[in-house]
Amino acid sequence: MTDGLPALSFSISSLTLIGMLAVITYTAYGMSVMPLNLIKGTRSVAYERLENTEDIDEVEHQIENLKSKCKDGRPLSSKDRRNLQELEGKLQVLRRRGRHLDIAERNCCSKVGIALRPVKVSLHYEIGSCSQM
Fold it and tell me: Where are the membrane-spanning stretches (predicted)?
């Protein structure tokens, strides 16, 4: 009955060791990247929205230029049709991204995250000062 106890103990100890190494590696990476993320910051939703609006305007202008080529009744060349389809697809993606940005801007989590940023920075400072002791 005790023949399997050392094998079971060894397997549990091995799995515990592997798990502990994984936790240590994960925590070490997080602690080393956290200051970089605080320095780099995040892009604001308003800035991304402005960038998205500019991209939409640019793509719409390119679509209008391609469509103006066929106003006199001539059909578009295959290259222009392909470019027009790609631009229309890109316009759909940009409009979808704009809707996602609208949702993100109204999201309460982003507003709370902005409000709690000083707490995040101060916690990082306290953790960093404790680890230097």
Answer: 6-29
pLDDT tens by residue, 74-119: 787 888 889 989 999 999 999 999 999 888 877 777 667 667 777 7
What's the CA gap between 133 and 130, in Å, rounded?
Answer: 6
Structural domain boundaries enclosing 19: 1-41
Number of Cβ atoms within 10 Å of the Cβ of 59: 20
65 and 30, same structural domain? no
Residues 122, 77 share a domain: yes
pLDDT at 58 over 90: yes
